[in-house]
Amino acid sequence: MLANCVATQDVHRAYGGVVPEVASRAHQVNIIPVVDLALKKAGVVKEDLSAIAFTRGPGLLGSLLVGVSFAKGLALSLGIPMIEVNHMQGHVLAHFIEDPKPNFPFLCLTVSGGHTQIVVIKSPLEMEVIGTTIDDAAGEAFDKTGKLLGLEYPAGPIIDRLAKLGTPRFEFPEPNIPELNFSFSGLKTSILYFLKRELKKNPEFINEHLNDICASVQTRIVSVLMNKLKKASIQSGIKEIAVAGGVSANSELREQLIATGEELGWSTYVPKLEYCTDNAAMIAITAYYKYQKGEFVGQDIVPMSRYAL
After folding, report:
1. Distance between CA 286 and CA 283 in Å, rounded?
2. Over the stretch 139-192, which tens digit does the pLDDT of each residue have?
3. How far apart are CA 45 and CA 2, in angstroms?
4. Confidence band (pLDDT; 50, 70, 90) for 12?
């Protein structure tokens, strides 16, 4: 990996969440400087490129349109092929950017703001989703809880930091969802009602118990993820276990994965933090495998806000 440049959009903090129109406009502003910086860091010029890879989806359509349109123009001007990448496939294959790499087949718990999935990876380009969220994703549960607690967006890293200072002494129910699927909407509702109830009794409840609330919420979200992952491992017999996606940066999830792996004899894999959140490197490594297979697309390609793995 020669260069992996990211432009962050702090403007969304003011709104407590991502504003699609603001995001797409920021993409337009940033895409040329970021690509230029990546080329300079890599020590190459655009004429050295063999192909252009881009995220086709899933995601916010306005932002995807900016990326796809730019990729089309750059590829056309250079006379080189294009490679479309599924964003979630990129998260999984982030494990192949650097050593150690998982052995096939392996299970990957892919957890982000918009997705929560358990995937069987049989080869770099052959994946099967065996569990997914039926409503909200784990990352969304973190962010919505943060909003209830008056924390800044994105709340996940803040809750993680505050949880280290607290004790998980408040009980939240674990959703009873069949098979390997997930649900976090009920958990969000139980947190909402819990806070309303306690604030009626004590208006300073959140301020006085913030660290313990964060620790309790985080413990439950992580236990939901780990219990399903353990179930998937038992059912499939697979003991090569990986996590990916933005929520895989959560320290408790990482600690629980390693501890459970030692207990159950798993080989566990956690990507570097820079490869957990959305980044270009994971799209590049996916494109590397597609390039080898000659899986190119034409100028008629369109982005997809929903794009199943």
Report:
1. 5
2. 999 999 999 999 998 899 999 999 999 999 999 999 989 899 999 999 999 999
3. 13
4. low
Q: Within 10 Å of residue 9's Cβ, how many Cβ atoms?
A: 16
Pairwise CA distance, residues 204 & 307, whole Å: 44
Question: What is the structure's pLDDT at 23?
Answer: 84
Statement: residue 30 has pLDDT above 90: yes
Average pLDDT over residues 213-230: 98
Query: Which alpha helices (DSSP H) does the chain contain, by range?
Result: 20-42, 61-78, 87-93, 138-149, 156-163, 185-201, 205-236, 251-264, 280-293
Which positions ≥6 away from 4 have C-beta within 8 Å? Answer: 38, 274, 279, 280, 281, 284
Torsion angle, alpha carbons of 298, 300, 303, 308, to 10: -70
Query: Is residue 98 over pLDDT 80?
Result: yes
Residues 58 and 91 sit within 8 Å (Cβ to Cβ): no
DSSP string, 172-213: -PPP--STT-B--HHHHHHHHHHHHHHHHH-TTHHHHHHHHH
Q: DSSP assignment, residue 275?
A: G
CATH numbers and ranges of domains, the chain: 10-91+277-293 (3.30.420.40), 102-271 (3.30.420.40)
Residue 47 DSSP label: G
Provide the token pair at 234: 């038992």
pLDDT in tens, 251-284: 999 999 999 999 999 999 999 999 998 999 999 9
Q: Are strands 116-123 and 126-132 parallel, antiparallel or unpaired?
A: antiparallel
Query: Sign of torsion, CA 296 301 302 304?
Result: negative
| Cis amide leading into 105 (omega within 30) | yes
Q: And the tokens for 228?
A: 């399903």
